Amino acid sequence: MDKRKVANQQVKDRLLAALVEFAGRKDWSKVTVTELVEAAGVARASFYRNFASVEELVDYGIRQVTERYHAGKPEGREGFRDRALVEYKFRFYQENAPLVLAFHRAKAATSLLDLITDCEIACWGDMPLSSPDRYEVYFYAGAFYNVLLCWLESGTRESPEAMADAFMRLADGVAGD
């Protein structure tokens, strides 16, 4: 990557880090570009060279997490009944806890749930609208999202392995009924 691209990537990452710092203190929809560039220590023009709005910066954060998720996902692992994949998910989101919790605290939870749901759809494929089975993907994503947030907010006292086991038991209990 050439120097300009590296510098531009650093600007984007600094802006995202500044946005994350506002989480919990201020709803992201109310954060101004002026506040962001001041907190990030970048020029206003640098913001607008990369993003048209704060919402685009939020979307950039979602894309970054999604790309990292897919880049690290174990090959050949599919579906929510795959214990190794469930463990990977807990480990991944634990490693990205500051950003995940920032989305949650900034009232951008729908974006976070969409990210998790999109990752599940990428694994399973989107079901045809005529298939009642398509609801299983959304059920799983919502259940995982809620368990994940509770675990992250409680400080991840349990290991990703223990969380994968607990989540698998919960999912099997619901699916087994």
From TrEMBL:
Domain of life of the organism encoding this protein: Bacteria
Keyword DNA repair: no
PROSITE patterns, A to Z: HTH_TETR_2
Residue ranges of domain HTH tetR-type in the record: 9-69
One GO MF term attached to the UniProt entry: DNA binding
UniProt-listed InterPro entries: Homeodomain-like_sf (IPR009057), HTH-type_Tx_Regulator (IPR050624), HTH_TetR (IPR001647), TetR_C_Firmicutes (IPR039532)
Keyword terms of this UniProt record: DNA-binding
DNA-binding region in chain numbering: 32-51
Record carries keyword ATP-binding: no
Protein name: TetR/AcrR family transcriptional regulator
UniProt organism field: Gordonibacter pamelaeae
Lineage of source species: Bacteria, Bacillati, Actinomycetota, Coriobacteriia, Eggerthellales
